[in-house]
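User: Hey, quick favor. My workstation is busy. Could you predict this chain's structure for me?
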Amino acid sequence: MRFHQVHLEDMSRVRVRKVCEIEDREVPNAEIGKGYQLTKEKIIPVLDEELREIPLPTAKAIEIEAFVPLESIDPIQIGDGYYLQPDGQVAANPYTLLRKALERSSKVAIAKYAWSGRERLGLLRVRDNVIVLHAMHWADEIRDPAELKPDDVKLTKKEIAEAEHLIDRLTRDDLEGEEFTDRYTEAVEALLEAKREHREPPAVEEPKAPGKVVDLMAALQESVNKAKASRGEDATVHEMPKKKTAAKKAPAKKAAAKKTTSSKKTAAKRTAKKTPAANKRSA
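Assistant: No problem, here it is.
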């Protein structure tokens, strides 16, 4: 969903204008160039002609540098994807050859290409008989996550086992289903439709604010309950089995220990904090 900036009093469009700070006037594109801020007071001008004269081997083609297994690429380096198509019938033969070779080798190609006047790194793979180019971040564009790592935390074997049990419950073979729909876009569409018809928009349930996780095991067990309930399974939580001791004990009656679900959210949702991975945006 894309919106325009408008003046709310008369609904007229509000547009961005390029104004010179010294002359206080709007500047046409013909008078605008590039400049590199060397210091606070000094800017070095760089002309477009000078940039075009810099030799760029990948200016006219995508140059493949290597073929590697996809598993060897850290997903954090992979950015937006673009479909590639052959440039006319002459290019159809090498295009098809590369596609078939990639499919049979089960590898991806690492290439260099030019985009917006600079050289970039890319990944080529095959999807539905079409070659896809994924923009990649250079190594110096990826932040070092060492500063974001929390202090060492001691976890019990029971907590780790319960987390693994939760992963098993939420494991699936595809990403199809109502859980993977864009609910925000659907809500915006419903809002626009209601405003177009001059009626009240549909009520939307307010999401509960997450709180702090006090009891990690209780939060993990509640997450397992929800995973079971979503699949129509028995949501009763049983205690993890204890290790057998060498001494024999008298048989005791087994009782299913039921625990009520708490109001805490999934632990994984509360302990994770989003942080940008790359310093620079891809094309």
